[in-house]
Design goal:
8-stranded parallel β-barrel, alpha/beta, TIM Barrel, binds erythose-4-phosphate, 8 strands, 46% helix, 308 residues
Length: 308
């Protein structure tokens, strides 16, 4: 489990060198959460996002091709319309739009186009996986594109991050955000863990190296190095990145992604994520808790006495 005592003063020092999230200009009552983490909606569905934005629950959006498709986009033109509407809705807050091209030149060209849609565009760049789409593709495409876009002053969100070294190299290439997918990591372990071994064993069980498939081996070293069995392997990833970024005063923002429930939201807050992108169906649960609801009913009933 996450150990709250591992929170370091260094993480706070890194955080307060980033821009303030809640500003209180000319106010006697200073905002109590000036360096709060930002919460984004992980969605492309305008009607789901709008009420959350108007309620001040979210200050940004992340999308990807799957979310665009879910929101109804059946062509590039429709994806553009959805993107522009979202950019306008939350302006000046950021909206991550993912590249769909797969070669360096075309990705840079597409990034320029996306960037022209608004001042609040963040270009989402997959950090790897290119040869899995086409074996002739350059595996370093993502990192090269992130670096080229940094040189062009275009903000990027390095996506599909699954270990702290990928996060480090993306930041080193110039990414504004890194998106570790902690829910997918937890799902993977849930499916692939050996039931009689400690939680998360498929990601670090070193003795199994000779017997595991290559795609299960590549993640192992960090988990061996950083503490063995843990139930919360996804959140462990956030903590690791936070420690690495703190050690080297890296200001790239840790954007916890692929969240599934409120337990993971709480754990990410404890682990030191800079931004959490949360599905709208999870965010919609913010005002609800059985005890909040029961308490409110009692207060309402008891307040009737003042009507007399
Ligand atoms: C992040 O920016 C991604 O859009 C997202 O969090 C992926 O989550 P999923 O695992 O629910 O698809």
């Amino acid at each position: 489990m996450f150990n709250i005592h591992q929170t370091k003063a260094g993480a706070h020092a890194r955080r307060i060198r980033m821009p303030k999230v809640n500003i209180s200009p000319d106010k006697k009552l200073l905002h109590p959460a000036e360096w709060a983490p930002r919460i984004f909606a992980d969605s492309a569905a305008y009607s789901d996002i709008e009420p959350l934005f108007r309620a001040g629950i979210i200050t940004g959006i992340t999308t990807n091709p799957t979310l665009m498709k879910k929101a109804g986009a059946k062509s590039w033109a429709e994806a553009e319309k959805i993107s522009r509407d979202l950019l306008k809705l939350v302006s000046p807050f950021p909206v991550s739009l993912e590249l769909t091209e797969l070669t360096r030149e075309k990705m840079i060209e597409q990034a320029r186009l996306l960037d022209s849609w608004g001042d609040n565009v963040v270009v989402k760049v997959p950090v790897g996986g290119y040869p899995d789409v086409d074996p002739s593709f350059d595996p370093y495409t993502g990192l090269k594109v992130i670096h080229a876009l940094w040189e062009m002053d275009i903000r990027t969100n390095a996506t599909l991050i699954f270990n702290s070294t990928q996060a480090f190299w993306a930041a080193n290439a110039g990414a504004t955000y890194v998106s570790p997918f902690l829910g997918r990591m937890a799902d993977y372990a849930y499916k692939n863990d050996h039931p009689e071994r400690p939680p998360g064993n498929c990601l670090y069980w070193i003795e199994d190296h000779k017997n595991t498939k290559a795609d299960q081996m590549v993640f192992n070293t960090e988990y061996v190095a950083s503490g063995g069995p843990r139930k919360d392997i996804g959140v462990r990833l956030i903590q690791e990145i936070s420690v690495v970024f703190t050690n080297y005063d890296i200001h790239c923002q840790i954007l916890a992604a692929s969240l599934r429930n409120f337990a993971q939201v709480s754990e990410c807050l404890l682990a030191g994520a800079d931004v959490l992108t949360v599905p709208t169906q999870v965010l919609e649960q913010v005002p609800f808790h059985p005890l909040t609801q029961a308490g409110m009913k009692t207060f309402f009933e008891d307040s009737k006495v003042f009507d007399k």
